[in-house]
Amino acid sequence: MKFMLMMQGTRKGWESMGSWRPEEIVEHIRFMKRLVEELRTTGELLLAEGLDVPANAKIVKAAREDAPLVSDGPFAETKEFLAGFWLVEVTSMQRAHAIAARASTAPGPNGAPMAIPIEVRQVMSAPSIEP
Fold it and tell me: In CATH, what is the architecture of 2-115?
């Protein structure tokens, strides 16, 4: 079973990282790298990536492929955004939840677990289409 674990962020949370001590940022990153390495070792990790800041995001819409409308996004009223993700292949939804729970405990200021919201969604295959 494949699952995408999506780490949610907030503007307030993102901006607060500017007040973290350098060693707190290092420990946060170290935690995330250890998690990725553990999932590689177990063979469960398919892909993991952090995403750029929301201010650099763009929204693309098109009625025709050759005429895209590109605008800034997410918009100012957006309170939450996708900060990063893991794509894992595990034996059960319970295992996906366990990995998400572990990721959620990434350390923040003073090493306290951040309780980061992690959305867990199963990756589904498209139905086969017979001609």
Answer: 2-Layer Sandwich (3.30)
